[in-house]
Request: fold
Amino acid sequence: MASVKFLSLYNMKFLIVGLGNPGTEYNHTRHNIGFDVLDLFAKEKGVSWESVRHGWRVEASHKGRKLIFIKPSTYMNLSGKAVAYWMQSEKVSIENVLVVVDDLSMELGKLRIRPKGSDAGHNGLKSIAESLGSQNYPRLKFGVGNNFPKGRQVEFVLGTWDEDELALVNLASEKSISLIKEYIFGPKSLSWSPE
Reply:
């Protein structure tokens, strides 16, 4: 009976990781949407970030589920180091991890949660797969569009949102929080698209 109780508690704890780069020069860039979504969620929960090993951490709960939010300070291409460390430290299984990340292949504001997938050339996802030895970890992809000239991808993802994009980005950020809340109660494939 004790083992069943342990399993139940184990499945009620989630590690939500928002990807981004540390440093004020990266604040509110497309590549840092993972940070921004978690900042918004933490604000909704009324909790404050604390500086910890490999990043910033905050703890919250939602309808009986324990949520550990992490924003890695390792820079995007070493995100896996922070994810692996906090999975082990918090004793969270790979199925109960959710990585919030920007996606160039999806239209602006489109959201999609999947239980696994390829890194699609994203350095943060590539690092996580290398550190975990698996692509089978859940991720919430936030579409940032691909409205940039050929060869200007890096400049685009490290750039801030255009003025006319902000309303949609803010709406999709709120919807991201709704999807995360749904995800922790079971459905592993979720999506939302702007009208």
Q: What stands out?
A: Residues 1-10 have pLDDT under 50 and may be disordered. The first strand starts at residue 13 and ends at 18. Residues 2-192 form a domain with the Rossmann fold fold (CATH 3.40.50.1470).
